[in-house]
Write a structure and sequence with these properties.
Elements lengths: L1 E4 L4 H6 L1 H10 L5 E5 L4 H7 L4 E4 L15 E4 L6 H7 L6 E2 L20 H11 L24 E4 L11 H13 L4 E3 L6 H11 L13 H9 L3 E5 L2 H8 L4 E5 L4 H4 L8 E5 L15 H4 L3 H22 L1
Parallel strand pairs: 1-2, 1-4, 2-3, 4-5, 6-7, 6-8, 8-9, 9-10
Helix pairs in contact: 2-5, 6-7, 6-12, 8-9
């Protein structure tokens, strides 16, 4: 058994896709087991290559089903907690970043400013496992049950600082609807009230609010068959990358150099105003680097990624 730990969220799993596929290719005859939250199961199926998901929330005592793997691979973090959890499974070998605190002196050194995709590719490369960092495409789910060809606005984030102001999402929705986009709003059940307020302010119909009405599988299908996605730095942005759906991602306070769409794909655009000298932030509302992004700038970026998508489609055809 090859055991990979990635007990995090949607974007975390999506950015680990090249590493997981590299482990699958390097060990085709062994079972590949992923320790990750159980609610991610629909996305694990779309990543492909994983034989079994063992639901894992947090970094406590490992599930007995994870005992004695041939290899344990830490795709979760720098340690020491994640290292110690995997060491508790008694693996034949642990592949992980060096962590003296966990007693693990093997592996490369951690880089705090590294892109999340490159981080796990570099780890495996250090252990002589070939990885293709561009291997980010996800399998397409069946399209049934969600609208296709829509423009998805995803205003939410687990981190309040990463949320672009709702009033700007409403202004963006009004402008895009006036330009012929069928706009819908996605999000979690907790974000439904905000999504409804945005829809009301933008004059969108009642059925435009999909927040709280889609599970992860349906959300993936919504993005896979969408015309366009606009979101903050959150999991939906990585789904758009995985499906090559044109997207505009609004970054702040974290730089797109760490979590942004891959380079060389003009149908994905990261907007980032983090190079300025910003005043001290009081911790309330959107971070200043995100609040500095204006509606007109997003509208212009939407036009750019749509043009790039049309050009790419014509070349492919």
């Amino acid at each position: 058994m090859i055991l990979a730990l990635r007990a995090l969220g949607v974007g975390d799993l999506a950015t680990a896709t090249p590493a997981l596929r590299a482990l699958r290719a390097a060990h085709p005859d062994r079972e590949l087991v992923l320790a990750a939250p159980g609610w991610l199961a629909p996305l694990v199926d779309l990543v492909g290559g994983v034989d079994r998901l063992v639901p894992t929330d947090g970094l406590g005592r490992p599930d007995p089903a994870l005992r004695t793997p041939h290899l344990a691979v830490n795709l979760h973090g720098r340690g020491p907690e994640s290292h110690l959890m995997l060491a508790g499974t008694r693996p034949g070998r642990l592949l992980a970043y060096a962590s003296p605190e966990a007693g693990h002196h093997d592996g490369p050194g951690w880089r705090a400013d590294e892109h999340e995709v490159d981080r796990w590719c570099r780890l495996l490369d250090w252990y002589d496992v070939p990885v293709d960092r561009t291997d980010l495409d996800l399998r397409r789910p069946a399209p049934g049950g969600v609208p296709s060809g829509v423009t998805v606005l995803h205003p939410g984030s687990k981190v309040p600082a990463k949320r672009w102001p709702p009033g700007r999402f409403a202004a963006l929705a009004r402008e895009l609807a006036a330009r012929g986009h069928r706009v819908v709003l996605s999000g979690s059940p907790e974000e439904r009230t905000t999504a409804q307020r945005i829809a009301d302010d933008a004059g969108l119909p009642a059925d435009a609010v999909l927040a709280g009405r889609t599970d992860l599988g349906a959300l993936a299908a919504l993005v896979a068959y969408a015309r366009l996605v606009v979101s903050g730095d959150t999991g939906v942005a990585h789904l758009a990358t995985g499906y090559r759906t044109p997207s505009v991602v609004l970054f702040g306070p974290v730089s797109p150099a760490q979590w942004g769409p891959p380079p060389g794909r003009p149908r994905h655009r990261a907007l980032w105003a983090g190079t300025g000298d910003w005043p001290r932030w009081d911790g309330v509302g959107s971070h200043p680097t995100l609040a500095a992004i204006g509606v007109d700038e997003v509208v212009a970026a939407v036009a750019e990624v749509e043009r790039a998508g049309r050009v790419s489609g014509a070349v492919a055809a």
